[in-house]
Specification:
heterodimer; A: alpha/beta; Rossmann fold; six-stranded mixed β-sheet; four-stranded antiparallel β-sheet; 10 strands; 36% helix; 26% strand; B: alpha+beta; six-stranded mixed β-barrel; six-stranded mixed barrel; 24 helices; 25 strands
Chain lengths: 242, 845
């Protein structure tokens, strides 16, 4: 049984109180396995982004606990949490992923540079070649297409060999062809390079790249699916909506 | 639309306040200056009206000499003429009046009153109703060992009736018995001055010359108007005496005008600095509006999309500017009241002691402050406002703030052109073509630099940032890139720092050169072991008998006195240096070109060779000299010397004044001590005739050189103080720009925090961006300032300033301070940057 890359135990995230109370997370217990590609799906307001933000250490739970790479996040101060994110977590956001004043290469090694490290050069070269960006390394983000920017973001997420990579709607702003390229690279990162990816998405096609899909509704886990394909997923979602 | 813009403006109160701060400080300085000078004027107006309240007619000599910037020296009036005045029908009583130099020595041995503050007077106390003083305690002085003093001085010095008081004046240092305390109507001490009062014969002998006074004060019996009385007295007086009579109203007005001229000069001086502060405020406002316009592109585009036309969008921004301007001006005016007190303290701290009573706030000050402040803000915002109006509605659909970040060819060439023009003007000014070119050249030079600023900002910022990147890694790299990514903004933010640093550096360079010049001059030309000096502010000094007393000491080998006098040369009022050739040589050595200093006769003059060349004078030519008392003589040019800042252009023999009725003081006495006498013995001996009697300051040669050359630093300190406000405004500008940049980049900051940048690293990035910006301004400013200082010195070269001394330590201090400023300005914005909500910044929904 492979060790969990990230877990949440009885996670609650509650805003407000009394009648105005909003339960973004209503008791979620979940575990993400190492070396697997997991997707989190659900309608708007299901809590999927909140779950990811909390597990990634970007937001705090009202109650419950979260671990990353075996480290419990509760009790960590901001500095320790930041360091954990830097060394153990990779991020790919839907947009605004890159620092406009840095080149593609500088963006890729950004978390490492922030930590004052150079990282594993062989690994980084491998990632760059896998992602196919060798000839674009000195370009600024403004000189790259949307798809290329997202690939740089994925490369950055991989570069520091984190325990887990969180992707929040990574193909949301891309056309289907480019989106497919990015998702393929993410797939290869997991299958060939042994990385762990957790992706939040509302797109059934994107979700079917994953090994496992977790469905959320109203802040609770509503179901799971393994070996997904787009039709199965769409079907399940329809059923979930009732 | 108006309501909308009002709402938009008030929605961001923090930003509103910070932006107005620039205007608040600038207008505060302006209104503070006006309030200060109005208060000064009022204090003196009141003073002189009181002084001459009971004076119906004022008789004085019509013979006087006026020197530019030196005021007026008037001849004395013979006391015998008083009988004539008393005999005139309609005169109730008349008395002699003296307002001459006298210094009262306190019980601790130190002179009362300040060296650079209100004057210290000696005068007459009389029973006559026409007199100015009345007895408050004790009685009037009678005889040559009795005196009175004014109430305030008696209080300050803890003097009571019966005390023995030492007083120094033109004739020497004497002791008197205090027999009474006097007051001036209701005023116990007019303008903070000190008054030592004697009976008329004693006053004349001690303060002026026996038998002479400065003027007659006349009170009529009420049967005639002032004008009629004046006319009668004038007719009765012997015309050979060259006397004139003024009405009480005339003398009051004349005195008030004279003071008014001095205050006017001071006001102009202060106003220039407040205009500099406002000018820098302009930059800040312009910068802020440019940035916010760019950031509100979407808002403005939305307005345009839903139907607002260009004018409405522009007007909205101008309304915002008006609000900021009005708000800032009102608060600035209130700040000005406090600042006027500050100005008073600042001047006093650097030796300019001016007493003020109360506070005079004229309507004119309020109006000017509000109008200027509001106009300045609106004018600064016009350009960005127009640009905002031109935004296409489609821009509402785009996502990021788009500011035209680059510079363009045309702008760069214009900038270079203006810069070159400025340099040409400066060179012309340096060559002596026209002094106005200096001012024009400076303005053009600055303008040129500011226009090409954005063009050079990028490479300079990148260059300055290199060491930081090398030292701080990726945070340094980002700071460097952030400073360079918007050259226009960086240049505009650095501009106020640039102007402030340039001005500070220019004055520092100028002062350093002046100090060096003085130091070298004194070093070359004065060869004594000790110097006894009095403050040389044109009024009073050391009695001329003192140098003889010093020379008579057994420890002294040689002593000579040096003074200044006001005379007319060929009809023009001039300051001339007065020395005693018999005792001067060896102690005071002019750099002679032609002739011999020792051979200067009583009817000779040594002139600067520059002046001689300009006027085409030769050895043996004659000049007509007119003394204050009306004496006219002929002087022969007996030599020429190389001028320096110290001697002026003319040197004459003290004996010229023998047997004349002129007030003469020495300002410095140089002393050579006999071989074998120890320093301690020498000092003690010299002190017995000088400082023990409160006469002058005793210093060794080195102490004297240091003190004299250091005087310029007092003025420099004052100028630093006046520029301080401009620097503060520049810093406020950096803070605002950084805050706006942080706000603009919140997405980026959120991303950085998410991928693992600690709060401390975020602060570092913001801090170094600020430092690079301020150092950009500082480095360019220092270069500019040194150039300006150099030109200033070259332009003034014919006044005797030839050396240029680069103030190395001063420059380093300025650069270090600019560095610190950059760090300090970043504190609040850096803190704000760490408060960025990661969640909000990275969310796309």
């Amino acid at each position: 049984m492979s060790q969990a890359a990230a877990t949440a135990q009885a996670a609650f995230k509650i805003y407000g109180s009394g009648d105005g109370e909003v339960r973004a997370l209503d008791g979620v217990t979940i575990s993400f396995d190492k070396g697997k590609f997991t997707a989190i799906m659900g309608p708007s307001g299901s809590g999927k982004s909140t779950l990811m933000h909390c597990i990634a250490g970007l937001d705090s739970l009202t109650s419950g606990s979260v671990t990353i790479g075996g480290v419990d996040l509760s009790g960590l101060n901001d500095k320790a949490l930041t360091k954990l994110r830097r060394d153990q977590v990779g991020f790919v956001f839907q947009a605004f992923n890159l620092i406009p004043t840095l080149s593609a290469e500088e963006n890729i090694v950004l978390p490492l540079s922030l930590g004052g490290q150079t990282g594993d050069r062989a690994w980084i070269d491998k990632v760059i070649d896998t992602i196919g960006l060798r000839d674009r390394l000195d370009h600024r983000p403004s000189e790259l297409s949307g798809g290329q920017q997202q690939r740089v973001a994925v490369a950055r997420a991989l570069a520091s060999q984190p325990s887990v990579i969180f992707a929040d709607e990574p193909t949301g702003n891309l056309d289907s062809k480019t989106g497919h390229e990015v998702l393929s690279f993410m797939r290869r990162a997991v299958t060939e390079l042994g990385q762990t990816i957790v992706m939040v998405t509302h797109d059934a096609v994107a979700a079917s790249y994953a090994d496992r899909i977790v469905f959320l509704k109203d802040g609770k886990i509503a179901g799971e699916m393994t070996e997904p394909n787009p039709e199965k997923v769409l079907d399940y979602l329809k059923h979930l909506g009732e | 639309m108006l309501r909308l813009s009002l709402k938009m403006t008030l929605a961001r109160k923090g930003r509103l306040f910070l932006t107005s701060l620039a205007i608040i400080l600038g207008t505060g300085f302006l209104s503070g200056t006006f309030i200060f000078s109005d208060t000064l004027s009022k204090t003196f107006d009141r003073l002189f009206t009181d002084v001459f309240r009971d004076v119906d007619a004022y008789v004085r000599s019509s013979s006087f000499i006026e020197v530019q910037f030196g005021g007026e020296q008037r001849a004395s009036v013979p006391i015998e003429a008083l009988d004539t005045v008393l005999g005139v029908d309609g005169v109730k009583d008349a008395t002699g009046d003296i307002q001459a130099f006298a210094r009262i020595i306190g019980k601790d041995g130190k002179p009362l009153g300040s060296d650079n503050g209100p004057p210290t007077f000696g005068g007459i106390a009389t029973a006559s109703v026409a007199g100015l003083w009345s007895v408050e305690e004790g009685r009037l002085p009678s005889g040559e060992i009795e005196m009175m003093m004014d109430r305030a001085t008696a209080n300050n010095g803890d003097f009571v009736v019966g005390d023995v008081v030492r007083v120094n004046a033109q004739s020497g240092s004497r002791e008197f018995t205090l027999v009474g305390i006097a007051s001036y109507g209701e005023i116990s001490s007019p303008g903070g001055a000190t008054f030592a009062l004697f009976d008329q014969p004693t006053a004349s002998a001690f303060l002026l010359k026996p038998g002479y006074v400065d003027a007659f004060l006349v009170q009529g019996d009420g049967s005639l108007s002032e004008e009629e009385l004046t006319a009668r007295i004038d007719a009765a007086l012997d015309s050979t005496l060259k006397l004139e009579t003024l009405t009480g109203a005339q003398i009051t007005e004349e005195t008030t005008d004279q003071i008014g001229a001095v205050i006017g000069f001071l006001t102009t001086f202060l106003t220039i600095f407040s205009l500099i502060a406002l000018g820098i405020g302009c930059f800040v406002i312009f910068n802020v509006f440019s940035i916010t316009t760019a950031q509100r592109l979407r808002e403005n585009a939305l307005l345009r999309a839903i139907g607002a036309n260009r004018k409405q969008v522009t007007t909205a921004l101008l309304v915002e500017a008006t609000i900021i301007g009005l708000l800032g001006s009102i608060l600035g005016f209130l700040t000005g009241i406090a600042l006027s007190r500050g100005l008073s303290a600042l001047l006093a701290a650097f030796g300019v002691d001016i007493p003020t009573q109360g506070l005079s706030i004229e309507m004119r000050t309020v109006i000017i402050t509000l109008v200027v402040g509001t106009l300045v803000t609106i004018v600064s915002a016009v350009f960005p406002a127009l640009k905002a109006g031109r935004v296409p509605p489609l821009a509402a659909l785009r996502d990021t703030a788009i500011e035209n970040v680059g510079s363009n060819r045309k702008r760069f060439s214009i900038g270079i052109g203006v810069l070159v023009l400025g340099i040409v003007a400066l060179v012309l000014a340096a060559l002596g073509v026209n002094d106005w070119f200096l001012g024009l050249g400076v303005v053009a030079f600055f303008a040129g630099v500011l226009v090409i600023g954005p063009g050079v900002a990028k490479p300079v910022a990148l260059g300055l940032g290199r060491p930081i990147e090398w030292w701080r890694g990726v945070t340094g790299a980002m700071a460097r890139q952030n400073a360079a990514r918007n050259p226009k903004r960086t240049a505009r933010t650095a501009a106020p720092v640039l102007i402030g640093v340039a001005l500070v550096t220019a004055f520092t360079a100028f002062a350093a050169s002046v100090e060096k010049e003085i130091r070298d001059t004194i070093g070359d030309q004065f060869n004594g072991d000790y110097a006894i000096s009095a403050p040389s502010n044109g009024f009073g000094g050391l009695p001329t008998t003192l140098s003889d007393e010093v020379a008579a000491l057994p420890e002294v080998e040689q002593a000579t006195g040096l003074g200044f006098a006001t005379v007319t040369l060929d009809g023009e009022g001039r300051f001339v240096q007065v020395l005693n050739p018999a005792t001067a040589t060896g102690l005071v050595d002019l750099e002679m070109v032609l002739g011999d200093q020792t051979a200067l006769t009583a009817s000779g003059v040594i002139v600067s060779n520059n002046r001689a060349t300009t006027e085409g004078w030769q050895l043996g030519d004659t000049l007509n000299v007119g003394l204050v008392d009306g004496t006219v003589k002929t002087l022969t040019i007996e030599g020429t010397f190389v001028p320096n800042g110290f001697f002026g252009s003319y040197v004459i023999n003290r004996d010229l004044f023998a047997d004349t009725n002129n007030t003469l003081f020495d300002t410095i006495i140089y002393v050579n001590i006999r071989d074998g006498v120890s320093d301690d013995d020498a000092r003690t001996a010299l002190a017995t005739v000088s400082t023990d009697r409160g006469l002058g300051t005793l210093q060794s040669r080195q102490e004297f050189i240091d003190a004299q050359s250091g005087q310029i630093n007092q003025i420099l300190g004052l100028i630093y103080g006046l520029l301080a406000l401009s620097i503060v405004i520049a810093v406020v500008g950096i803070v605002i720009t950084l805050l706006l940049s942080v706000f603009e980049r919140r997405r980026e900051i959120g991303l950085l925090r998410a991928v693992g940048m600690t709060r401390s690293q975020v602060r570092t990035t913001v801090r170094w961006e600020s430092v690079i910006t301020s150092m950009f301004g500082a480095v360019v400013g220092v270069v500019l300032g040194i150039v300006m200082g150099l030109v200033l010195i070259v332009v003034l070269a014919d006044d005797g300033l030839a050396a240029f001394s680069l103030p190395v330590s001063g420059t380093i201090v300025i650069l270090v301070l600019s560095f610190i400023v950059g760090v300090l300005a970043a504190i609040y914005p850096a803190w704000k940057a760490t408060r960025v909500d990661i969640m909000q910044s990275i969310s796309t929904t």
